[in-house]
Every structure is written in C-alpha cells, then in structure tokens.
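Exercise 3.2. Students should predict the tertiary structure of the chain below and write it as structure tokens, then compare their answer with the key that follows.

Predict this chain's 3D structure.
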Amino acid sequence: MLIPKKVKHRKWHKGRRRNIRGATDKIELAFGSYGLKALTGAWISARQIEAARRVLTRYTRRGGKIWIRIFADHPVTKKGNEVPMGAGKGAVDHYISVVKAGTVMFEMDGIPEASAKTALELAAYKLACRCKYITKEIV
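Answer key:
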C-alpha cells in the first residue's frame, strides 16, 4: 500500500468545509490520452487507490502506460474500541488523499480507446466518489 515516507506532522486536523469547492489544479490531462476525473469530492484511501491501480494493470495486461495523479499523504486517526471520551487523539489508522471535484486521478496511454474506457470505468467502481471517463481533445 502507498504510505508516505515522512510527513510534517504525525497527526493532522480533518479540516472544515470539506469537499465544498472544486479543484484548481490537476483538472486536465497532462500525461496520457485517457483519464478518470472525479465529479464529486471525497477522501480516497490508499487501499482504494491500490485497488483501482490493480484493475487498470490487470485489464490492460501491462500493455499501456498508467499515471496515478493522486497520493495518499493525509493521516487519519482512529481510537480503539471501548475507549472512554477524552484521553487524547487516537493513533494513525490509515492514509487518505483529499480529492476535490474536477481532479484527474488516473491517466492512461498506449492502448486502444475502447480498452482504456472499460478499464477506467472498472477502476471507478473501486473509488469513493463519482467519476467520469475523459479523453484528450486534439485541436
């Protein structure tokens, strides 16, 4: 699974007003010809990113090139069962990537468009947000 080698702080705040605004960066395809774009904001866990990556590599049979544009670098804490109120913040349980609406999460190239569309739609089932398949417009 993807976890960062080092984070600035071991435990982070959740942040307020989550998933209200749309993304301002990573909104267009930068590397590949086909991509998967988030339509809603969500917390995407490292497990979900890995599951989607496995779907893409298995479906393409290692034929094309895949770029993962998001990384799970935000720690999420969780308290143990039957722990009373108070007693501080829980231990780090897993890592997430905060994805805003409009973020391109995965890109592909080097395979036929029909295969890329099917693979990316299968990968979208593994993620916690609504997604759509996009292509690069040739001007």
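Discussion points: The longest strand covers residues 91-99. The domain at 38-80+89-135 is CATH 3.90.1170.10 (Aldehyde Oxidoreductase; domain 3).
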